[in-house]
Amino acid sequence: MEKTGNVRSSLLKLLWHRIGEDDIPGLSAQLAYFFLLSLFPLLIVLFTLLPYLPIQQPDMLGIIRDFAPVEAMDLIEKNVKEIMNHRNGGLLSFGIIGTIWSASNGINAIVRALNKAYNVKESRSFIVSRGVAILLTFGMIFVFILAIVLPVFGKEIGLFLFSKFGYTSEFIKLWNALSWLVSAIILFLMFTGLYWIAPNVKLRCRSSFPGAIFATIGWIISSIGLSFYVGNFSNYSLTYGSIGAIIVLMIWLYISAFIIIIGGEINAFYSERNRTNC
């Protein structure tokens, strides 16, 4: 018990030191900027895939709607719909290549941030490092689609089975509770893959678990907390007008970036500790 307490104390001291040394607030601001540049291209790719998937358009943004502040969500939905209404060409157009490249900018920024957490330089060539970012972007798209498909089909299958026994209302209550667990598991898998593959360090998959657990729990709590605060205690649109939604979106992306970087720092701490013990 005492040893565990010492480890936690060392971790907290390291994180406090790294926040200043690595300028995590400034790095989070940079990451939030790249997230903003990547968000809409990523959503455009997902919406372009809609005709090839058994998913309805309202379900596509459902997983984001569960966590994002209302004002930020309204901004995202409005702009995505406007872009898609004026977009020409299909999935196999040259435009989609540039869109995927733009969407990978956010992942590429995460790679640099995680390399800084591990105190390593990017020794991979530009093609390899960018290829990793694009591969992870495709991975995020797959996870995003999985996060949509599983709840949609799971609910339909459950309703069909439980309706046979007359327990439809009971199942809906159970499903609403389980859907949060499903979302948390999918987020955990996404963060695990990100922390495992992105840094320019050879890591075991399980070494990514501490940061992935922190990022999953931290992101869910902070997103719901921000959404509750904006919805009940602050009205950015009333104060700042039409730009209020952009401010809320940037705050959400900044908090998300901060949590992702801290998760990388946690993994770096345990990785260094394990090497020292060996």
From TrEMBL:
<feature type="transmembrane region" description="Helical">
    <location>
        <begin position="132"/>
        <end position="154"/>
    </location>
</feature>
<keyword id="KW-1003">Cell membrane</keyword>
<feature type="transmembrane region" description="Helical">
    <location>
        <begin position="91"/>
        <end position="111"/>
    </location>
</feature>
<feature type="transmembrane region" description="Helical">
    <location>
        <begin position="174"/>
        <end position="197"/>
    </location>
</feature>
<protein>
    <submittedName>
        <fullName>Ribonuclease BN</fullName>
    </submittedName>
</protein>
<feature type="transmembrane region" description="Helical">
    <location>
        <begin position="31"/>
        <end position="53"/>
    </location>
</feature>
<feature type="transmembrane region" description="Helical">
    <location>
        <begin position="242"/>
        <end position="263"/>
    </location>
</feature>
<dbReference type="InterPro" id="IPR017039">
    <property type="entry name" value="Virul_fac_BrkB"/>
</dbReference>
<keyword id="KW-0812">Transmembrane</keyword>
<dbReference type="Pfam" id="PF03631">
    <property type="entry name" value="Virul_fac_BrkB"/>
</dbReference>
<keyword id="KW-1133">Transmembrane helix</keyword>
<feature type="transmembrane region" description="Helical">
    <location>
        <begin position="209"/>
        <end position="230"/>
    </location>
</feature>
<keyword id="KW-0472">Membrane</keyword>
<dbReference type="GO" id="GO:0005886">
    <property type="term" value="C:plasma membrane"/>
</dbReference>
